[in-house]
Amino acid sequence: LVDRWIASCETLTDEQLEVPGFSAYPYGIDPHIPFIGVLWWTNREFINHMAEVALLRDLYPRMTTMNRDR
């Protein structure tokens, strides 16, 4: 999945990255900001959500251990 994301981002030209509304998402501010901004936001959101998943993954074994000790 990550390899496909990187490969598709590498195909974009500098001109495409600067085009406002290139993402074709009709709602929100996407039609008004350059596509590079959409990519930046998407990457940041992905990183944040994956960090949340990692935190829950790390906490879950401890939670089950704590419940078993009661």
Q: What's the mean pLDDT score?
A: 87
> Roughly how much helix do the residues carry, as a percent range?
55-70%
Which value, in Å, is the CA radius of gyration? 19 Å
Major β-sheet annotation = none
The DSSP helix count reads 3
Unreliable segments (pLDDT under 50, ≥5 consecutive)? none
- Strand tally, please? 0
Q: Structural class per helix/strand content?
A: mainly alpha
| C-alpha termini separation | 41 Å
Which outline best applies? elongated
Order of helices and strands: HHH
Strand content: under 5%
Summarize the structure.
This protein is mostly helical and 70 residues long. Helix content is 69%, strand content 0%.
Itemize the secondary structure elements and their pairings:
Layout: H1 2-10, H2 14-18, H3 35-68
What does this structure look like?
With 70 residues, the protein is mostly helical. Helices cover 69% and strands 0% of the residues. It has helices spanning 2-10, 14-18, 35-68. The longest helix has 34 residues, at 35-68. The protein starts with a helix and ends with a helix.
What attributes characterize this protein structure?
mainly alpha
